[in-house]
Amino acid sequence: MLYAGKILHGLANGMQHTACSSYYSEVTSPSIRTAVHCMAGVFNCLGMLLLVIAARFGLNWRLLCYIMSVLPLFGFVHLLTVPESPAWLVMKGRLKEALRAILKLRGPGYNHAGELEYLERSYDSQVSGNHGKYQIIKRLKDPDVWKPFVIVNLLFIIQLWTGLGTVTIYMISIIKATGTTLNPYNCGIAVIIVKTTGQFLSSILSVKFNRRTIFMWSCFLVSCAWTGLGISVYFNNNSSNLFEKATNNSQLTDALKRPLTYPETAQYLDFLPVIFLMLLTISFQCGLGPTPWVYGNELYPLGLRSYLCALTSSFEPVQGFFVVKLFPRVSHLMGLTGAFFMFGTVAMLGVVFGFFILPETRGKTLHQINRMFYRENSKKLGDTEGY
Question: How far is residue 290's CA from residue 293's CA, in Å, rounded to a whole number?
Fold first, then answer.
């Protein structure tokens, strides 16, 4: 029964995540598009916080499941009042419904006809001559399709292999293994509060700063946090192997696992693992966490967005599964410190990726973003500007 519940939960979560992310991108203006994406993550973090607090105070997990199963019903009722995406309606040729949706979303005093005309031009320029399954496959050769696909999937690889998913799944075990004498459940609540704060800050930072800048600083701070966490574990004589007591015979593993004592006057170092976990989560949520999802729904062209988003979203949980599944093995082979250093190295590679490869999309319309992947003299996507 538990496995069936997890399977249904995974299917439902995957279906709603792709739909919601696409909807945010299509109904919001360029100036607030990323902020809206990030605010959605705030509520996700709040839900996680409620679960940890409930577990901390001993609420029965079955009762908690019953309570949480009721909450999606409120979302179902709310969706009955939400208008369909105008871009999707235009794509389906339902122009009158698209105009009504724009009226409801934008309110009075807005150039509704102008936005509808722009959506029509933008869609026509992207799908002209590209109908049918064969033409869709042929479209994958276009630079505004394959380049975003490579960039977005590399973003997800960097995001997942920086290891925050392992913190989410193994948080209490990791806190205990670091050797801190603080209450691991209280520490877990503090980390998730900081995580929620970071997600909220990301919505503010996205309005003030460029996406690439936020992403690179986020990766840099995540790398520093993992490195600091690894060093604090290395110097804490109370730290332990996370999952197994067996040791590896290699000298490298022994060196990484070897605990060193520190003076009694420096017992404040006991707080360092929790501090670095807080830095890790807030840095991740400010940029590295939401960036792949934002870019996935901005870079993909309108005509293929649903297909490409669904494909990317299907890769993400598979990669996340392998990261979480392999973490105990990596921790055993390299030691906890070595695993943390590995995650920090991946995060530093994210800085390099952001500097040399990641395009800037702040303030650009979805149509302008698609045009970035063509040479300046290319007329394939036309010269329309838009919303």
Answer: 6
CB-based contacts of 252-261 (< 8 A; 24+ apart in sequence): 252/334, 252/338, 253/333, 253/334, 253/335, 253/338, 256/334, 256/335, 256/337, 256/338, 257/335, 257/336, 257/337, 258/234, 259/179, 259/234, 259/235, 260/234, 260/235, 261/237
Rounded CA separation 240/233 (Å) = 9
**DSSP, res 84:** P
Is there a contact between 313 and 155 (Cβ–Cβ < 8 Å)? no
Letter string b/e over residues 66-92, b meaning 16 or more CB atoms within 10 A of that residue's CB: eeeeeeeeeeeeeeeeeebbbbbbbbe
Structure tokens at 292: 């792949």
Q: Please name the residues in contact with 221: beta carbons below 8 A apart, sequence gap of 6 or more.
A: 279, 283
pLDDT tens digits along 62-108: 888 888 888 889 988 988 888 998 888 888 888 888 888 888 888 88
Backbone angles phi, psi at 199, to 5 degrees: -65, -40
Beta carbons of 365 and 387 less than 8 angstroms apart:
yes
Q: Which two tokens stand for residue 264?
A: 């009694």
For 108, how many CA atoms within 13 A lie in the half-sphere containing its CB? 0
In angstroms, rounded to a whole number, what is the distance separating the alpha carbons of residues 190 and 278? 8
Please name the residue that has the structure tokens 């870079």: 299
Q: What predicted TM-score, i.e. pTM, was given to this entire model? A: 0.76
Rounded Cα–Cα distance for residues 126 and 201 (Å): 35
* Residue 12 parent element (H or E): helix 2-27
**131-184 pLDDT tens trace:** 555 666 777 888 888 999 999 999 999 999 999 988 888 888 888 888 778 888
Q: What is the DSSP string of 155-220?
A: HHHHHHTTTHHHHHHHHHHHHHHTT--S-HHHHHHHHHHHHHHHHHHHHHHHHHS-HHHHHHHHHH
**Residues in Cβ contact with 67 at an 8 Å cutoff, skipping those fewer than 6 apart:** none
Task: Tell me the residue length of the chain.
Answer: 387
Q: What gap in Å lies between CA 17 and CA 148, rounded to an integer?
A: 19
Is the CB of residue 351 less than 8 Å from the CB of residue 219?
yes
